[in-house]
Amino acid sequence: MSPVPLARRLRFGMPRRVFSQVLLMQVAIAAGVAVLATGLFLAPLSKQLDEEAMRQALAIAETTAQNPQIAEGVLNTPPTRNGPVQKEAERIRRATHAEYIVVLNRHKVRWSHPTASEIGNIVSTSPKEALAGKEVMEIDSGTLGRSARGKVPLRDTHGKIIGAVSVGIKYDSVRADLIGAIPGLLAYAGGALAVGALAAWLISRRVQRQTRDLAFSDISALLAEREAMLHGIREGVVALDRTGRVRLLNDEAHRLLSIDADAVGRSPDEALGEGRTADILAGRVAGTDLLTVRGQRVLVANRMPTDDGGAVATLRDRTELEQLGRELDSTRGLIDALRAQDHEHANRMHTLLGLLELEMYDDAVEFVGEVVGDHRVTAEQVTEKIQDPLIAALLVGKATVAAERGVALWVSDRTRLPDRLIDPRGLVTIVGNLVDNALDAVAGTRHARVEVELRAEGRTAVLRVRDTGPGIPAGQHELIFTDGWSTKEPPAHRKRGIGLSMVRRLAERQGGSATVGEADGGGAEFTVVLPEALTEPAPEPALTTSADATVNAATSVKEESR
Fold it and tell me: Where does this one sit in the cell (predicted)?
């Protein structure tokens, strides 16, 4: 194994975990704030200490200048080492811990100084302002080094300026005070840093729990994977927050629900309108694999609560499966009809065979004529009243299934439907659902009967389906049109509870209505009104005149002679 370079082994990179990164960053921020606060505090403190030192020097100078022995000594004695001015100035200097007290006359000659050899010499800094009657505070350098100075004029008993007093406080003592204050400041800064570090640790622990100790790169990758997954799956996903408002919609949810991106931030009722779909998303309807109809789509919805009080709902498009289920139902109905016909045909063939074996030929001929006539009358009665081939074929097939189930299916004498339907397939769905529901309702009852009335009133189609079943309670007349409502056991291949809902939606899509009431004599009566369901009738052909008829007849004769 190749050795790892020393520089690589000693290199410390940024920790990957969110907990470590957040803690490190917050501690660094707290330390930076503590250092910055300490620096911002020390800067004005230094200036404040300088000003205090200068004011102290000025106060000592004023006290010295007001001493009458000082002014009298300057006027009456020469500048000597043992003179009264030197003795008094040194006494005050030692008492106040000043660095120096210099008394000078108007000619800038010193009468006092901590260094006796300087007495009688000219001062090194100009006392011009003090000799002019002004008080001076400054930080300056002289023969004794850098100091904080205070200068005041020296006056005699008559107030005349006869010199000046200059007092200095050693600058090193000011700096010592500043340095002495630093440990206390650092202690406060350290305490603040410790509190900040503790708060940073607590926050980092909370972030660690919420992020499950993942690295920022892992979180970023998870977000990218989530986006790809949400927009790539063929199921609609709707996420709601704890207040019940939509916070996420993937592309498939936009398509299935037929809503725009502005639905985010709104409640399901606001985004979708009131209805079963909004109730399922809002959690007002509980259960798994809940059926709902949105527009022309049949959807299966599931809702799962999340830890933060919100929820995630998934939507699957069941429209094609539902259509396949209905086709399967139709196929089963056809199989039942064929089985019934086969059973009936076998019985009739056995009857015919018996008549032939008994050599009752006339009775056999009559029996065959009756059988063929019954079927012809049934089909002819339907096609005479209903001229649309799809609707007529549907009712003929349903009549056979009804006979197999012991139910009498009647087409009302008031039925008249011309072959001018705009959407015959939609009407086939409506009639098929209502007739199937009616057959299920009367199955197993005495004198079971279902009556279908279908007529045209101008361009409006009116459908009524009556049955002799138990009927619908008055309080459930609107409930039965709700998605998922059913009183029957679902078949194995699909769920029930959307047939009547689709009937109403198909009717409302054409501007019509679907209602239910009580039929005469008991049972239920469903009424569907479809305005604008038929096209305008074609104009009748104009009557030909007698001359035209003569010409046409002559033409026909000529054609036949040829």
Answer: Cell membrane
Task: Kindly state the tokens that stand for 207.
Answer: 């972030």
DSSP state of 537: P
Q: Give me the sheet containing 236-240, strands edge to edge.
A: 246-249, 236-240, 311-317, 297-305, 290-294
Tokens of 389: 């081939």
- At which residue do the structure tokens 């090193």 appear? 172
Average pLDDT value for residue range 263-291? 85
Separation CA 280–CA 298 (nearest Å): 14
306 backbone dihedrals φ, ψ, rounded to 5°: -115, 165
Alpha helices in 134-250 (DSSP H): 171-211, 216-232
Average pLDDT rounded to a whole number, residues 291-319: 83
Note the pTM of the prediction, 2 decimals.
Answer: 0.43
Share of the chain above pLDDT 90, in %: 11
Total number of residues shown for the chain = 562
Q: d(Cα 137, Cα 482) in Å, to the nearest integer?
A: 94
Domains of the chain: 22-178 (3.30.450.20), 235-316 (3.30.450.20), 361-530 (3.30.565.10)
Q: What is the mean pLDDT of residues 337-348?
A: 68
Find out whether 414 and 456 touch, Cβ atoms under 8 Å: no
Question: At residue 155, what is the residue type?
Answer: R
Query: Rounded to whole angstroms, how far apart are CA atoms 381 and 372?
Result: 14
Q: Please write the tens of the pLDDT for every residue from 187-240.
A: 766 777 777 777 777 776 777 666 666 665 666 666 677 666 666 677 888 889
**Comparing C-alpha atoms, which of 404, 410, 243, 255 is closest to residue 337?**
404
CA distance 514 to 516: 7
The two tokens of residue 446 are 């005495």
Distances (CA, A) of 293 to 158, 296, 501: 112, 7, 8
Please provide residue 182's backbone torsions phi and psi, each rounded to the nearest 5 degrees: -65, -45
Is the model more confident about 417 or about 484? 417
Q: Using alpha carbons only, what angle is made at residue 435 by residues 429 and 439, rounded to the nearest 5 degrees?
A: 145
Tell how strand 136-142 and strand 145-155 pair up: antiparallel
How far is residue 405's CA from residue 431's CA, in Å, rounded to a whole number? 18
Query: Exposed (0-12), middle (13-18) or buried (19+): which is 155, by Cβ within 10 Å?
Result: middle
Bridge pairing between strands 449-457 and 460-467: antiparallel
Ramachandran region, residue 78 (left: φ > 0; alpha: ψ -120 to 50; beta: rest) = beta
- pLDDT tens sequence across 86-129: 999 999 988 988 888 999 999 989 999 888 888 889 888 888 88
Q: What single letter denotes the amino acid at residue 409?
A: L
Q: Using CA atoms, how far apart are residues 372 and 169, in angstroms rounded to an integer?
A: 138
Average pLDDT of the chain to the nearest whole number: 77
Rounded to whole angstroms, the Cα distance separating 462 from 196 reads 79
Work out the number of other CB atoms within 10 angstroms of the CB of residue 550: 11
